[in-house]
Each structure stands twice: as C-alpha cells, then as structure tokens.
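Two records follow; treat each independently.
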Amino acid sequence: MGIEFCPLADEVGKLTDWLAVAVGLLAAVGTIWVASSANRTSQRAAEIAEEAKGISQQQHLEAVNTREANARIIGRLLLHEVLGLPNRLRALEKLLESAIDGDSGWGALRLLNATGELSIPLLPNAERVEDRIHALPDMIGANLATMISHTRDLVDAAKRVKDAIVMHEARAIGTKTTYSYAGNPSKPGLLLEHLRYMSTLAPSFASEFRQFVLPGIVGEVAAE
C-alpha cells in the first residue's frame, strides 16, 4: 500500500510557517517601537531635568539679587544711625562718669539725667527692621544683631537704675527738691562698665558697616 500525501496538510504547514514569520516580525516591530518610545521618553526626561536645573539656577540667582537689593536698602536706612553710635556712646559714658564721680546730692540728679538719656533706644531703626537683617551679609547681620542685643540690655539696666532714684520734694520756702539713689550701689558702676565695653565695640562695627554700604571708604570711625 503506497503512502499518500494530503495537499491540504501541506498548505496548512506553509500557512503555519508564514504565521510564525508574521508573529516574529510583529514582535520585532513591537520591540523596536518600545525601544524607540523608551529612548524618546529618556531624552524627554533628560530635557525636563535640564530645564528644571535651569529654572532652579534662575530662581537662585533671583533670590541672591533680591537679598543683595534688600541688604543695600537696609544698609542705607541704618547707615547714619550706626555711624553715630560711637560718639553717642562716648557722650553717654562721660555723662554717667560725672554722675558716679559727683557728690551724693548732685550725683543723684546727674545719675537721673544720665539714665534718662540711656533709657532712650540707641538703635531704634535697627530694632524696627530686626526681622530683615538676615538679608545683610552674614557677618554684618550677626554683628548688628549683637549690637542690638547689647543696646537693649543697656537700656533695660539704665531704666532699673533710674527707677531707683528717689525725688525728695522741697517742703519749705527756700529749699530745693533733692534726689537720692536708693538702689543697689553696684548697679551704676556695672552700667558704666557695660557702656564702656560697648564703646570699644562700636567704632570697629561702624567702620565695617560703612565699608559695606559705601565700598572703598576705609578707616575706623573714631569716637570723639
């Protein structure tokens, strides 16, 4: 008995082969498309990252420019006050010295006058913009904050000494109102020491501040 070949089976086999080839081609095309899409996505991601970097750099530059502009404005606003601080401290120091070295009667009155002057804020404008001094260069801002702190302590101490001065009103014709200090005897001397310490700090700080606001001008601000 001879072997018979079925033509239909042969055609089916060929069709299967073609289908396998087609599937392979589709898979290859799909792989290429996925790879191409991934490449485009990667390139776009890199572009976005570069754009974000540029935006970040621009924002940083704008922030720096804004801080420098604010620093210049604050510097100009406070320049006169800071430059005048050394001379004002020196004048207050002399006034307080005369009160402490004077006789008990007149000394109390001089102490009243001196502590009255010392009770007035020494850096009022700086205190008003205290929440903005971070815009100043780090060292300038830190030193200004230190001076504000010292002046506040000085004013508070002066007020406490002033509050301890007692006025004795004249009770008879021909007599005068007198004053006496009823507080801790060491407090006026401690106040004077603090004032002298500030007087040593103020000239160099004023010079440093002036150099920042007005570059090119050198030399210390000396108290006269």
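The next record belongs to a different protein.
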Amino acid sequence: MSSDMFDKFKTTLQDGKTQITKVVSDVNAEITKTAQNNNINSPLPAEFSSEVAKAANILNGFTDPEKSEGGLEQVIPKEVFDKAMGLAVFTVVKAGFVWSGRVGSGLVVSKLDDGSWSRPSCISIGGVGFGPQFGADVTDFVIILNTKEAVKAFSHGENVTLGGSLSITAGPLGFGGEVAGSVYDGAALFSYSKSKGLFAGTIIFERKDANHKFYEKDISAEELLTTKAVMYPPATHVLYEAIRKAEERQPKN
C-alpha cells in the first residue's frame, strides 16, 4: 500500500470514528432530554454524585407511600427492608426490535455487621435478549439483597448475572403486615420495578473508574461494601437519608 493510499485509509477510519462518536453523543443527549422532559431518571452512567441523588429518588419512590405511584399497596414492605443485607438501585433502558439491548447505571450498598450501611459502589448494567420488543422502555429498579452470598457476589468486582448463580424473584409488596417466611425460600434477590419483567440475564458491572474518581483513590467494591475504609462523603447523605426514612416507617393499620 502506497503512502497516499495509507493516508486516505487512515483519514477514512478517523472520519468514521468521528461520525460514530457523534451518533453516540446525539443518542445519549436525546435519552437524557427525554428523561428530563418526562420526569424520569436517566439510565446513562453519570458522575457519582448524580448517581447518588438518582438512587435516593428511586428509593423514596419505592418506600414512601406518598411518593409511590401505587400508594400503600405498591411499596417495599418494611419487614423486607429491615431484613435486607444490601440494596442495588438503578435505572435501565431496554430498546430494540426482535432483539433488545439493555443498558443502565446505579449504585449498590450493603448493611455492615454493626447494622450501619456501607459506602456505595457505582455499577453499570448491560444485557441482550430476544423476543418481541418494540421501541424503548426506561425502568427504575430496586433489588433487595437477601443474603450475605448476594452481597459477596457484588463485592468481588466480577460481573453479576441476575437469574444466574443468584436466584431472583419479584418481591412482596405492601406497607404493613408480616411477610410470610416462605417468600424468602431460595430467593437471594427480590426485584422491584415500575414495569413488569425481572430482566433475568441482565449483567451488572462494577464501575471502577467512577469509584476511583469519586473516592479519589483506588478502592475495590469489596472494601466499599464490607469495610469503613473511607469516610462517608457529604454527597452520599441524601442516600442515607432515604434509607433512614425507609427504616423508620411505621406500619399503618
């Protein structure tokens, strides 16, 4: 290949890369705009402080009857929340035709041995599926981690596949009352969402770059979810306030 041909080939590749980057940027901007216009959370990975605010907003929507679309009957029961070993809170967009793709972002946090809550670790979500899927659907999720094994899976820095080694099922709903022990049988994870579907096969990844930038140091998900290796950053207070309100709810007769 001559020098001129190589230069033209290189220029063509660079132009193609620029066009692809622009398309991705335009799509991201459109998703963000649509989310803002429809008062829904954006599924796109954002800076850590934005992820914290989003997680707090989602959690309030699933635990506060006044903010829940379904009122008292559509909130996570206090008993389920009290027994939780951890929480994964995120937003996912699912879109496609015949086959579908899923992307999203959020946070995971765990309950430490002393009963306090760990520092949050940033996560991203991905996956593909098949079957009838037309258009796009943006959905908020709260995943209750019912076991220490579930927390360990999120702590090891490896990809977590929902419905894989960790069983997942739709969680019970309702503000007050007792939750039958049988609902916990074999359920490592409880899924709560604003639309139908558990998204089994969805893969959750640790966002190491976001954690590093936010905590200003190299720190693993295991350190964040199982120790008090860092102080609670002020930006996370809104999340712990949402958790506190969920824990202090009083059943209504």
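Discussion point: The first helix runs from residue 3 to 37. How would you locate this feature using only the token line?
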